[in-house]
């Protein structure tokens, strides 16, 4: 990557004997919307806090525009943070909250007035400047927090689960607003969330973290369509995952034997005899009443789960695992208790290397 | 409409009723009685003669008494300021310790507070007396030639007042500082403020209700306290509390004692009035 705005090189964080971020390497391009995604405790917030300067990296190098910043105090770094609980100053009005960073930098008064009002206009909070934070709704507080950070024109904006406290509808609306705001201003966003749907909606690239390790860094579509690890396949969206061994290889089509039966998947660099995982999305699966060539995956229809846009069918398969496939409408020719054979187009499944 | 309003008042009245009765019985009536006595005159034998007189209030303005009042205000003021200067950093440090450590430290602060005050005051006297350990040390090491007279001085009284009052400053300060959201400090640093600026613009204003509670909880009792001055001042040092005690006790001038008490009450009420003007009453934190 040419001149990344932020780069992490071998960054680690240790709390006592607990290594919460392991050898993290990450380069973020200017103007990019990058999401750190992972379950709680995966080290995503700690990574963000190391960039902000609230946590000291135990090892490694953090650079902003090529300049090392690990030893700089938070107030010396040209990044700003939007906190999970907003962290608005309760004793100040909305105006003074937003103006805080500018008054610290001794920006002339008329300019402060202009920039704050412009920012409040941008987040649609005109007329709220005299309110105190406790007179605002959650969504409004969120906008103030964003305005307070953006008014300083940071190189990078760090957002720590900023929409976590909002209800679903407002969250969806704010996701789109935030993304538009980011595009309009061209500021680099580093966004922390555990909500994979949020990550897929907003990000240019997603960094999936698990147990302090960066599992996969890619554009949303690649993360969803071609997960590189078993964890990513299971965490992003819904997947049926099988553990098995390659028994045959023809062109790029692998035949894989698993406890549940035989299946096929496309994969390039796998050897016959290699242990690996197969992940398949519910929407790519098919069932037949008769066995399909290349597959030997019988299952019993357990129940149908109606979810509005799709109907999921749960099947019990040979190894006792329950797998699900989804359809827009319920299959009319099969019923609970029926024996069916599962198959799919080999290129729709993902072959995943067994992790070390 | 009117009927409805009356109906709605009933639960409120029922709730306020018992409290009001209690307040009237134990606060309002005794206070009115003190005010009433303060306008009576003193009999020849130290009894109260029920004849209206403003003599007691005129006496207060007499320079002798007035000086004592000023001196007491000054001592209470210095005690309050020193308790704040000592208490704020202490409370700040405790509030930033892990929860269980903080609880232990708070207990340590409370222990002297639970100890009998006579015992505490006597130990100060023993420590500081002419042949006490502190003077022995100073003379023994040659720092001073003659033992220093610590006891029965304003200085020792001040030490006694501060040590007596410090918990009243630390507790409300601790409870407000402890509640201060740490992410506000981080947000301030994130927006470019140094630690000192963050303290002045975020920490201090947000913990102001605690500071004001500390002021009230320290200033008002130090103004009226007489045990500390009695014991550490050896009866030589008179503050307003001692004078009131003496008027009701050995001197037997109840009207004057009552008038002085009324004055103390007025000062207290003024402070609370200022408090309610500057800090929201719901923020008031009395531990």
Automatic annotation (TrEMBL), chain A:
Question: Which reaction is recorded as catalysed by this protein?
Answer: ATP + H2O + polyamine-[polyamine-binding protein]Side 1 = ADP + phosphate + polyamineSide 2 + [polyamine-binding protein]Side 1
**GO MF term set:** ABC-type putrescine transporter activity; ATP binding; ATP hydrolysis activity
Which InterPro entries does UniProt cross-reference here? AAA+_ATPase (IPR003593), ABC_SmlMolc_Importer (IPR050093), ABC_transporter-like_ATP-bd (IPR003439), ABC_transporter-like_CS (IPR017871), Mo/tungstate-bd_C_term_dom (IPR008995), P-loop_NTPase (IPR027417), PotA-like (IPR005893), PotA_ATP-bd (IPR017879)
**One Pfam family hit:** TOBE_2
User: Which EC number(s) does the record attach to this protein?
Assistant: 7.6.2.11
- UniProt keyword terms in alphabetical order: ATP-binding, Cell membrane, Hydrolase, Membrane, Nucleotide-binding, Translocase, Transport
Domain named ABC transporter: which ranges?
Answer: 6-236
* Lineage top rank: taxon: Bacteria
Q: Name one GO cellular component term.
A: ATP-binding cassette (ABC) transporter complex
Q: Does the keyword Transit peptide apply?
A: no
Q: What does this protein do?
A: Part of the ABC transporter complex PotABCD involved in spermidine/putrescine import. Responsible for energy coupling to the transport system.
Summary of subunit composition and partner proteins: The complex is composed of two ATP-binding proteins (PotA), two transmembrane proteins (PotB and PotC) and a solute-binding protein (PotD).
Instruction: Give the family per the record.
Output: Belongs to the ABC transporter superfamily. Spermidine/putrescine importer (TC 3.A.1.11.1) family.
UniProt cross-references to PANTHER family, sorted A to Z: SPERMIDINE/PUTRESCINE IMPORT ATP-BINDING PROTEIN POTA, SPERMIDINE_PUTRESCINE IMPORT ATP-BINDING PROTEIN POTA
The protein's name is: Spermidine/putrescine import ATP-binding protein PotA
Q: What is the lineage of its organism?
A: Bacteria, Bacillati, Bacillota, Clostridia, Lachnospirales
């Amino acid at each position: 990557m040419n001149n990344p705005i932020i780069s992490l090189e071998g960054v680690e964080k240790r709390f006592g004997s607990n290594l919460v971020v392991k050898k993290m390497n990450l380069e973020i391009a200017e103007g990019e919307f990058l999401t750190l995604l992972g379950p709680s405790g995966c080290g995503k917030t700690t990574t963000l806090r190391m960039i902000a300067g609230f946590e000291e990296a135990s090892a490694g190098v953090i650079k902003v525009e090529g300049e090392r910043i690990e030893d700089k105090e938070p107030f010396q770094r040209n990044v700003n943070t939007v906190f999970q609980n907003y962290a608005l100053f309760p004793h100040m009005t909305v105006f003074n909250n937003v103006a805080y960073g500018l008054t610290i930098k001794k920006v002339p008064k008329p300019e402060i007035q202009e920039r704050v009002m412009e920012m409040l206009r941008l987040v649609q909070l005109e007329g709220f400047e005299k309110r105190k934070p406790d007179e605002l709704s959650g969504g409004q507080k969120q906008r103030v927090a964003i305005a307070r950070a953006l008014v300083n024109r940071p190189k990078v904006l760090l957002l720590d689960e900023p929409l976590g406290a909002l209800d679903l509808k407002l969250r969806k609306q704010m996701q789109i607003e935030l993304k538009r705001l980011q595009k309009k201003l061209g500021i680099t966003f580093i966004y922390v969330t555990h909500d994979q749907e949020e990550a897929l909606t907003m990000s240019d690239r997603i960094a999936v973290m698990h147990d302090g390790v960066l599992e996969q860094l890619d554009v949303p579509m690649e993360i969803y369509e071609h997960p590189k690890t078993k964890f990513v396949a299971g965490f992003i969206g819904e997947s049926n995952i099988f553990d098995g061994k390659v028994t045959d290889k023809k062109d790029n089509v692998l035949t894989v034997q698993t406890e549940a039966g035989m299946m096929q998947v496309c994969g390039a660099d796998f050897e016959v005899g290699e242990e690996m995982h197969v992940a398949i999305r519910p929407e790519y699966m098919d069932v037949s009443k008769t066995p399909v060539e290349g597959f030997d995956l019988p299952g019993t229809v357990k129940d149908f789960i109606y979810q509005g846009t799709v109907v999921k069918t749960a099947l019990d398969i040979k190894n006792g695992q329950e797998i699900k496939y989804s359809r827009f409408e319920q299959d009319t020719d099969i019923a609970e208790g029926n024996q069916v054979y599962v198959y799919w187009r080999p290129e729709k499944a993902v072959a995943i290397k067994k992790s070390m | 409409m009117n009927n409805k309003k009356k109906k709605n008042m009933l639960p409120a009245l029922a709730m306020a009723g018992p409290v009001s009765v209690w307040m009237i019985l134990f606060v309002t009536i005794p206070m009115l009685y003190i005010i009433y006595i303060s306008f009576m005159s003193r009999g020849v034998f130290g009894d109260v003669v029920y004849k209206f007189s403003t003599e007691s209030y005129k006496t207060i303005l007499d320079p002798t008494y007035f000086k004592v009042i000023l001196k007491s205000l000054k001592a209470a003021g210095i005690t309050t300021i020193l308790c704040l200067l000592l208490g704020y950093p202490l409370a700040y440090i405790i509030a930033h310790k892990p929860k269980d450590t903080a609880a232990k430290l708070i207990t340590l602060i409370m222990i002297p507070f639970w100890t009998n005050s006579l015992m505490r005051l006597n130990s100060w006297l023993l420590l500081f007396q002419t042949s006490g350990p502190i003077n022995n040390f100073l003379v023994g090491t040659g720092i001073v030639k003659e033992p220093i007279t610590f006891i029965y001085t304003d200085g020792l009284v001040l030490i006694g007042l501060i040590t007596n009052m410090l918990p009243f400053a630390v507790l409300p300060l601790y409870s407000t500082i402890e509640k201060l959201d740490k992410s506000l400090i981080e947000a301030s640093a994130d927006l470019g403020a140094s630690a000192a600026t963050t303290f002045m613009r975020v920490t201090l204003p947000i913990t102001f209700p605690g500071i004001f509670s500390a002021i009230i909880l320290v200033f008002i009792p130090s103004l009226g306290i007489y045990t500390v001055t009695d014991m550490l001042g050896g009866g030589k040092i008179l503050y307003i509390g001692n004078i009131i005690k003496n008027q009701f006790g050995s001197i037997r001038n109840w009207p004057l004692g009552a008038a002085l008490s009324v004055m103390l009450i007025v000062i207290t009420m003024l402070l609370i009035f200022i408090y309610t003007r500057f800090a929201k009453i719901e923020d008031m934190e009395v531990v």
